[in-house]
Amino acid sequence: MIPASFRDCKAWQKEGLPLSTSSNEACKLYDALLTQYVTWRNNETLGGIEGCISAVRAADPNFVMGHVIGTGLELVGTGSSVRLNGQLAGDVSRLVELAAGQELAPRERLHVRAVELFAKGCIPEACDLWDEILLEHPTDMLAIKFSHDGYFYLGQQTQMRDSVARVLPHWSPQMPLYSYLKGMYSFGLLETHFYDQAEKIAKEGLALNRQDGWAVHSVAHVHEMRAEVDKGLKFMESREKDWKICDMLASHNYWHWALYFIEKGEYEEALSIYDSEVMRRCKASGSMLDTVDACSMLYRLEMEGVNVKDRCRELLQVTKPHTEDHVLLFNDLHFLMTSLGAKEEGTAHRLLETLQELAEAPGENFEHQLARGVGMPMCQAMVAYDRGDFGAAVDLLRPLRYRFSEIGGSDAQRDVFHQLLVHSAMKSDQKRHQKLARCLLVERDAAKPNSLLTNRLIQRANALHV
């Protein structure tokens, strides 16, 4: 039984967002899917997101927006591509065919086209269309959330912030999902370095809804970027019972918790969180967010000198099936971390070889276009570092250091590549690279004062370069 709180046909119409179906059940299931997506929480009584996708298609097989949200969610999850997954490609084709044969509102047609473009890898163009929807319909939460995720994948931090800022005045606290806009806006603010404002807005959201895992995550980022380790640890612990119920985001929030321990050099505590929460949840969900977090955490620990080879071998069982996906360069780079950490040369070679092929004939796929100039050199730098050719790693990474944002993700997530450049420069036998390492660490200290990790790296550089 679908709860009465979910919106039916009339309720959607009243909000100025009519849906092209006469099925109240389909409308309510659409709302249930949207709610789970925005809150990062599967509603198990409705079968979670997967169950609701099946149910909405059964309630009205011709309901275009039901197909938009179902197929869109699978695409935005980035765990599968239309290039390799025939069923997903068929779902996209079915959506386009359905839309062509119906009278739809212009908003719905734009949604269909945006999903079709996203499926082709045309992520910037898809985001443009979601923004186009929001010009006329600023309360369309699906367009807000899809564009938010799209800009995140593109590393377009200013656009991610502004796309939410533009629509906020059109919302009121009485509207469903209103509080979650605060967390989304806060995340855009922190990614554009407005840390005070980001913390304030996130806490406004949490005052409205303690269980907003995304707002908690935004505050975790603020403490990470300011190197406020003890504040971050205290905040995450005090809120744990509220955010861990957001099953689609819980692993990521535990990852942030573990980062504070890595910052402090308390590696056993970080590994304890990895084993009990991050890897356990990664194996259970298979989600790309959980997977890349696990990859990143082990790679950071390995750079710190911790032996994680056995854990990499275990994680490889999750990443290996995705070796040739090439949906996002961000994902590719993280999968490579694990194959290198597990000393699985064949898997690493296959990832690079297949990515190179796509980079040479990218078509209209944005990520494949970016692979030649950014993705491939970053991958090659990781391979060079792994084989001990630190000078080559520096020469590949240094020209790209101000372009790392183009692979997507957050500042905190991409910091692993800045750390890789520092470690490569420190370990290089070339004096100019060693001097670069010290300069990079001065920069790092200026941008993030009182960082225990930076202080450790400075001490290590001084010890190496006496």
From TrEMBL:
<comment type="similarity">
    <text>Belongs to the TTC38 family.</text>
</comment>
<dbReference type="InterPro" id="IPR011990">
    <property type="entry name" value="TPR-like_helical_dom_sf"/>
</dbReference>
<dbReference type="InterPro" id="IPR033891">
    <property type="entry name" value="TTC38"/>
</dbReference>
<keyword id="KW-0677">Repeat</keyword>
<keyword id="KW-0802">TPR repeat</keyword>
<protein>
    <recommendedName>
        <fullName>Tetratricopeptide repeat protein 38</fullName>
    </recommendedName>
</protein>
